[in-house]
Amino acid sequence: MIKTNHFLKRCKQRGFRKSDIELLKIFGTKRRKPGGVFEYLLTKKDKHKVIRMLKQIIQRLDRLEGKAVLINEDDNSLITIYPKR
């Protein structure tokens, strides 16, 4: 992706990180704007949706701690899943 001088200057002025742009693109609401461009806006609704998803992922990680899966990557077959404690 090409970063314009204007973009780089505004990022520095406004304290945005490179990773912030990816988060806005992934989780934000995409809106068409005049001139054939798009805006990615992270709304309050978007933020709460992501927080709910992250909470669910944390619960699943807690449940899966100490578990393992055996995969044959040659043919992508799942062999077995088991507790490893």
Describe this structure in words.
- The longest helix is centred in the middle third of the chain and has 21 residues, at 44-64.
- A two-stranded antiparallel ribbon has the order 1-2. The chain has a two-stranded antiparallel sheet with strand order 3-4.
- The chain has one domain.
- The chain is 48% helix and 27% strand.
- By secondary structure, the protein is α+β, with helices and mostly antiparallel strands.
- The chain has helices spanning 5-14, 18-27, 44-64; strands spanning 29-33, 37-41, 67-72, 77-83.
- It has 3 helices and 4 strands.
Shape: elongated
Overall tally of structural domains: 1
Helix-residue proportion: 40-55%
Average pLDDT, to the nearest integer?
A: 96
H/E topology pattern: HHEEHEE
Q: What is the C-alpha radius of gyration, as a whole number of Å?
A: 20 Å
What amount of the residues lies in strands? 25-35%
Q: Can you summarize this structure?
A:
The protein has 85 residues and is α+β, with helices and mostly antiparallel strands. Helix content is 48%, strand content 27%.
What are the main properties of this structure?
alpha+beta, two-stranded antiparallel sheet, 85 residues, 4 strands, 48% helix
Map the helices and strands.
Blueprint: H1 5-14, H2 18-27, E1 29-33, E2 37-41, H3 44-64, E3 67-72, E4 77-83
Antiparallel strand pairs: 1-2, 3-4
